[in-house]
From TrEMBL:
Keywords of the record: Hydrolase, Protease, Serine protease, Signal
Classification via Pfam families: Peptidase_S9 (PF00326), Peptidase_S9_N (PF02897)
Domain Peptidase S9A N-terminal, chain residue ranges per copy: 110-373
InterPro entries: 6-blade_b-propeller_TolB-like (IPR011042), AB_hydrolase_fold (IPR029058), Pept_S9A_N (IPR023302), Peptidase_S9_cat (IPR001375), Peptidase_S9A (IPR002470)
Secretion signal, residue range per the UniProt entry: 1-18
Protein name, per record: Prolyl oligopeptidase family serine peptidase
Amino acid sequence: MKHALLAALIAAGFAAQAAENTTYKGLGADSVSADTLEKFRAKPLDSDLSRKVQGVLDLRAPGAGLLSPDAKSLYFGWRVTGVAQVWRIDGPQAFPVQMTGGEDATSIADITPDGKWLVLSRDRKGEENPGLYLQPARGGELQVIQHIPGVQTFFEFISDDGRYIYFRSNDESRDSYTVYRYDLQGKKKERLFGEKGYWSIIDHKPDGTLLAGKALSNVATEVWEWNPKDGKLKPIIGQAEKEEYDVRYGARDGELLVQTNKFGEFRRLYKWVAGKFEAISPELKWDVAGFGLDKPKSRLFYSINEGGYTKTFALDAKTLKPIKLPEFQGADHVTVSGGTRDGSKIIVSVETATAPRTSYVLDWNSGKLTQWVLPSSPETDTSKFAVATLETYPTRDGAQIPMFVRRPAQCNPAPCPVVVHFHGGPEAQSDAGFSPYAQLFVDAGFIYVEPNVRGSDGYGKTWLNMDNGAKRLKVVTDIEDAAIYMKKAWSKNGIAPKIGVMGGSYGGYSSMAAMTMFSGSYDAGVSTVGISNLLTFLENTAPYRRALRVAEYGDPVADREALIKLSPITHIDKLKDPLLIIQGASDPRVPVGEAVQMYEAAQKKGVPSDLILFADEGHGAQKRENQVASIGHTLKFFERYLKPAK
């Protein structure tokens, strides 16, 4: 017994030392050599597989978009060129006109009140350092407002008189945000305020008063009000509370609308006047997932997340009496967005399991609902898509983990192999709805599973906070318990299914943890932009993210032991099954060094492993050819290791 304990302690010491000794430094494409990028360039796919993936990428809907002030045009995002760009249609189901082009992902932020200018956001190589631009509403060259290499510039809003564009940027300090306004006539920017912290503008008044949010973590926020007369910030809600608040100015003077879970397990919508909260939404065992008002502040909209399905409601903003919205039978998600400035029209988006998202324009005056944008599903009958069923699996301590499951019509031979996809975040949620990506695996004969393990959003704040910091040690076993359940419950004739694990970002971390910490539970794993070592990740991630990530994962000093235990690379000696790692070199969130060090460690173990690096991508593939490569190699990998040899 003493020898066994000594061996365990020695092994733990070596593992901890391995985690401590990872020494890469830096962030972005410059932190890795050109030879390394070339060596791990994605290899060409078989033409049949490439065509299959290409076909899936064509099953899509344009973004919901923004209506012009006169409601005669709709501007929206679309990836039909292979990169996200801005498009315009001049009437319901009109022929789309491409507004922006090139290799840089571009999105529309807003339209000036006179309808003459578009405000656009453009990023380069997935670096997440976007710039702001102006473009004439009928098309033409872009005019730069601000785009600085290595700096983030985020749009906030356009003043009601159309004179100023407000934005924030970390140009003064990479870990904090300064708020500016840009004079459209004078073509000059003016600094408004710059305080230490992750600041954003939540709402504004016509006189220039700003409602500002200071993020303390990915969920916790303090709310402040900035006075344009004296340039000072006044505390409003949440100071030093570390609570979750989303706030807007209400329809009446002195009134705020607040979404928070401070007073209960679930997020609820409240009216706040003179420091007192009054509930607006009913008390439910589901979260209010979001809310907003139209620009005249005449109508209030809020959505409820019912276990991964979305319902939206409307109220009169002053009386809070219900307003009837159109009903859509069989819809998994119904949301509203992008209304006109006068509030006469709103965009309603509808998504089902068997059709891409469809967007309509609702005219409040006539009650007429008009479909503007047509989704595309070439050469595919999406009505045959597998519908996700909401199921659960048990954990070793008695919790029930919700999961969405999509199954092939039949498996030959049985049992079907399984692919488990863990979402990112970690404060995110897998939900129901239309998923060509999931269907690609179902069509290939895999059961496709998306768990919402503890730490996921949508199931109350206790569930959400169960993996914060060192507490993650107690619930990370949810990853292993999924495989334990599936191998037992989904076996056929005494044969357990082969199970693969995959995910991106935190889901990539989960995949690497599954293959190392819980070695043997999964038969193959694919990690995309995943964290291999929580310590090196926190040391090298972008400064603007570090403080928010420390609040979630733990402090590198105070929680060092837990971070080492939770790092997949600490458990590299347990790795025995095939692992594929995919990473963008320009990723500002998860440094490319995380992928390289994990691959090198796997190679030293002699385990079948591969690495794909995209030199021109960041936190996930944006360009079509890279998306095809990422998806295609993932599918090919699971076909090879989860299915019997032919």
